[in-house]
Every structure is written in C-alpha cells, then in structure tokens.
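Re: folding output
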Amino acid sequence: MIKTFKTIDEQIDILKSKGLEIDDIDYAKDVLLRENYFFISGYRHLFLKSPKDRMFISGTNFKELYAMFNFDRQIRNIFFKNILIVENNAKSIFSYQLSRKYGIKEKDYLNPSNFDRSSDKARQVNDLLKKIKRQIRINGGQHSATMHYISNYGYVPFWVVVKVLSFGLISELFTIMKREDQKDIAEVYGIYPDSLMIYLQILANFRNLCAHEDILYDHRTQRTIDDTRYHAYLDIPRTDGEYIYGKDDLFALVLILKQLLRKEDFTLLVNELSYELDILEGKIHSIEMDKILDRMGFPINFREIARIDEYGN
C-alpha cells in the first residue's frame, strides 16, 4: 500500500473516522502541525479497542493521545539525563582503571596486549581499537582539551579521550577487557562483570533511543537482564517461571539505574517519574493507568524500589 501526503484537515478526518473525539479542532491542528501526525499516532495503540479493530475506545479524546505523547517526552528527558550521569561515571572509571594499569599515552593504553587475547576476541579487539583511534582523530579537533594535549604534549590521555568516545564504544570496550579489569570495574558498582556488560549494552540502546526522540514508554530491548533481588522484593508476578516485568522493558532500565546511580540521584529519578505519572493520570480518562504501567513494564508498586536498601534490606 502506497502512502500519500495527507493535509492536516485530512489527518483530523482520519482520526475522527476511527472514533477519536476532537472537541477543539484548532488546537488539534496546531498540535499535529508542530508535533507530526506520525509520532502522535504512535501512541494510539493504548487507546484502541483491539489491534484488529483499529478503532478508538469509546470516549477517547485527542487530548488524551497528546497527553501520552507529552508524558513520553518528559520521561524520555528524565531517563536521558540519568543515563548521561551513568555514561560520565563509566567513562571516568574506565579511564582511571586503564590509565592506572597501562599508562597515559595512546600507545600504552590502546595497546592490543592490554585486552582479551583469546582467539575469538582478536578481530573484535583490533576493530574496536581502530574505531577508537578514528574517533580520536575525527572528534579530537572539536574539543579544546584534546587539542590542548596534542599541541602541548603530543598525546591525549585516556581520561580526556573518553569525552570524544560514544557510549556505544565505551560499552563495547568493556567486552574486550581482560577479566581482571572487568572485575575491578564491576566491583566499583558492587555487581558482577557479566551483569555490567549487559547493562552497558542496554543503556547504550536506551541512550540512542532517547537522543533520537523515539517512543520510549513501551520499548523492549533485545537483551534481557538477569533476575535481581529487586524482582523478588517487589513480588513481581511470573509467567512460566519468568518475571513479567523488569527484564527487557523500561522497568529493566530502572533496575539497572538503581544499581549504577548514587542513591540520591536514583531517588530523584523515581520521584520525577512518579510526578509525571500523577500528571498523566489526571489527563487520562478512557483507560486505566494500570494499562499504561503494564505497557511500560512497571509493577503497580514500582515506587517502593526507591526505598529498598534504605534500611539495610
């Protein structure tokens, strides 16, 4: 089926033909012009009678659809700033570990012998180190710190280099480190190296999604996180032995951030999420909030996650 251009008026007619109530046409037109019909309609699935029917639940209003759009925008900003905190922390910890152990010049800390030398990793190590060196060359000239070191010392220490590396590269860098280095870094967070490896990959995925303003609230990742004690503490239901929330969904990201952020940062995160959910609840009338939480992968008692460990639990 070939898609054709639709005017704002035609977009309004399509939404109304599917049963969406629009009580302020001018307001809806302004929203669709500014925000894009395609992205607004990306939130319609919550409000449809069924995937096959494609009709809106009776009483669904355009303002509810837009409220869901704005809610996703707000929580995307909340998660993005917290992922950036973790990214900055990880870059600092990685650079400290590699610089302390292997030296401060590129030829030292990017020496292939510093990394996993197993035969199945050799190609990945060489390819990744080439990518890192290329990013240093391409992006280095755009940062005053890297230019300063190159001009005055002829090399760039790793604690400066990390500023020009993407989180994706940092995530992959962890996978090629020697096991002892992975353990030293994971120990800072109090978690296992294999868990941190998965967490970094998932964080990089969510970071890119947030940066490109894609739909966040019901995103599912290809990787799943291992069961944590938080799943059991919150008494998350299981299906066929698997937890139904907090594995590959947005709540899995919350559980990752619980383990990687400082306590005060994480508490603020939960408070901000709670606030946005409360705001949304006041604007949604045609469906229950439990349905939204379910699509997000959030257990109803998710707020309790901020209090776990508070009293040594």
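--- second protein (sequence, then structure) ---
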Amino acid sequence: MIDIIPAIDIIDGKCVRLSQGDYNSKKIYNENPVEVAKEFEAHGVRRLHVVDLDGAASHHIINYRVLDQLASRTSLIIDFGGGIKSDEDLVIAFDNGAQMVTLGSIAVKNPELTIKWMDMYGQEKIILGADVKDRKIAINGWKEESGIELDDFLQKYIEKGMTKVLCTDISKDGMMEGPSIDLYKDIMKVHPDMYLIASGGVSSIDDLYKLEEANISAVVFGKAIYEGKIKLSDLYSFF
C-alpha cells in the first residue's frame, strides 16, 4: 500500500502552493496551516510533508514556529524541508517537532555534511531531496540548476546508505497534469529497494492508484486537495 503524504508549503506562516517552483505563482489557501493539518488528521492522514519555502529560498530555516505548532497540535508524523543548511538548522527542525528532514540543496553543495548527519541521526530520519528538471538536480528553491545528473546523485548517496528519496519533477509540480510515472519507474528499476516518495503533478485519485501500481512507496501532493480535485474522503481506501 502506497503511503499518502499531503503537503503543506509555507510562506510568511501561511499555507500556499506554487506552480513549477515559481514564487510569483504563489496562491494562499489558508492563513492557518494548523487548521489544514487538523483536517488532514481528522480524515485519517498520518503523515505530513512540510516545506519552508521562505527557508528554501534563503540560507536558514525561517518558519520553524509553524513547524512547532503543527507538531504540538497534531499527532501527525512530520517530515520537514526547506532552509536546512547547517547543524543549527537541523537541530531547530528536530527540536520543533520534525521526525524526519528532507535535505535537498545541502545534499548537493555539501555531501560530506549530509552523510555526517545521516550517520549521526540515522537513515530513518534523513530523506534525500532530489528536485529534478530534465533529469538534472535543481537547488535553492529550484531557482538554480546544479548540472548534476539524477542517476549520479542517487547512486552516490545510496552507496553511503541512504534509503529514502523524495523525487520531485519540477516541470510537473503544481500543474496537476499527472505525475512522472516513467521517471519513477526508471529509478525503481535501478534501485528496487529504495523507499521512493513521488512528488509533483498529482491531479486525481487515479494518479495515486497508478503510482501504487508502479510500486512507488509513497506520494506527496497538495494542490489537488486544495483545488478540490481530490477529496479527503477519497483517500480512505489508502488507510
């Protein structure tokens, strides 16, 4: 059974969504992310993916108070990403209730530090963020392309013991045109034991079934819920 992980993206403490990572496309869905999280929880959701978009475009975590509120006012298992660039940021994330962290830009720019953190905190607490554009890794809130090939990026970390990967196809993100199932299938062919979290493009409940049929471990999505394309009651069959 595929793990269902709704997303809450945060700018200025508010629940928002972007399209293809474009900050100018910001749409506010709720002024209070805790309300959104509580509604998810009330419908049987157990996991939550939280992204500090202010942090992702900056050099440190910014919306940690929102993380603390989400963690203290719900029992959701939260993985948190965006702005984790230092030991201090990582401590802030865990101290404010994150049970896992997603590391993207720092994993590209400082692999030694990323691997140190994985050894220190354990592979269960670290998710490798692979944000992809044309099968190359993008960083810093998707504003920069690193030139690193996805396959090379994944292989390097898997050899070091990384087991969880969140792969977002930037071209699909927020567009609700369907996920990059072929991309995820290609990854799973090479790394069949990976806990792969698909992200980007989910537009309907059928997309979730297609990802499940492709043996993808988990899926992160948000806009389809916020735009009413997927009702929370539709998710009951996955719990």
